[in-house]
Specification:
By secondary structure, the protein is mainly beta. Helix content is about 10%, strand content about 60%. The chain has one helix at about 5-20, and strands at about 25-30, 40-55, 55-65, 70-85, 90-95, 95-105, 110-115, 120, 125-130, 135-145, 150-155. About 20% of the residues are buried.
């Protein structure tokens, strides 16, 4: 018996991986919703240094974040994207230790969604990714007893 192959999903995954390798810059907006007790609001813009080896793509991000009060904060993060059979895995490398954030599975030809939420303490993280012709859009939502935050990233 032949296994069913979802060629649209495989094509979407391949296209995402190739586009990730081309990223060089990003911007993001952080906002709070009702009930949030954090002050993580503002916008950032920065550069991405990309390294690719095997199934892995590393993003070394550096940005300047400006909060709603005008304070500027330098940010650095390292993320690892990994092509797997049915999804792309996104991990945050903290002190070089990987923390699984999401397995992003294709849900449309250009859209991806978290396979399951990421739990961190009492907080729940979810994500959607949209592949546009000229950018990659990644939208995170963080919900918890003290949080209702949205992080809206644009990579190009």
């Amino acid at each position: 018996m032949n296994a069913l192959v979802d060629y649209k999903a495989l094509s979407a995954l391949a296209q995402l991986v190739e586009r990730l390798k081309q990223v060089r810059a990003f911007s993001f907006n952080a906002s709070n919703g009702p009930g949030s007790q954090t002050n993580w609001r503002g916008h950032g813009r920065g550069e991405v240094e990309v390294a690719s080896f095997g199934a892995h793509i590393l993003f070394a991000e550096r940005a300047e974040f400006t909060d709603v009060d005008g304070h500027k904060i330098d940010l650095q993060n390292t993320y690892r994207w990994t092509r797997c059979v049915d999804f792309v895995r996104l991990e945050h490398l903290r002190r070089e230790e990987p923390v699984l954030l999401f397995n992003l599975v294709p849900v449309t030809e250009h859209g991806f969604r978290h396979q399951s939420p990421h739990l961190c303490g009492e907080d729940t993280y979810t994500a959607d990714l949209i592949l546009h012709p000229d950018e990659i859009e990644l939208i995170w939502q963080i919900d918890g007893p003290r949080k209702n935050e949205r992080l809206h990233y644009h990579y190009w």
